[in-house]
Amino acid sequence: SYSGKHSRRGLRDSEGIMIEVQKVTLGSDVRRSSSVQKVLVEYEFLDRRSHRSEAHSVSRTRPEVKLNFAKTFPIRSPRDDAAAIVRDMLRGRGSSSAIEFTLLSSSSSGRDERLGKASVLLKDILERGSDRDFVPFADIDIYDVSSSGKRVGKIEISIVAFKCLEKIMYD
User: What is d(CA 162, CA 140) in angstroms, rounded to the nearest whole number?
Assistant: First the structure.
């Protein structure tokens, strides 16, 4: 994977999956919490390690925190190892087809606290036959990770994946 969009490396939409986290909009409870000074978003996709945005300061008055974090995962051939992983995800083998985004609070002590999760199913993009719902951006609700499960904010993301998913599954 590399930072940035498809065009940065001259890839067509069918040659990679791009995931971009534009911003998060925090609910009032999160903004008012004195323990939340900075937030970041992380997710796992294809690799074993997680992909993380930089931590950005939270404003008590403005709900939006701009992250501008984009990664592209090249998949040039349906025979690539990455293509095999995605195919298994879409067929329900191994890991789910969900991309889970985790909203974290970053403290000065270096410990991160999970504030909430949001997810997108790649299988839904393939079944709908389009990623238009995520281009240019879509707002996805973030829900508390505790038992309450209440909405703590939303994440604005872009996912360009359909042409690549179609190529992986049907070529």
Answer: 18
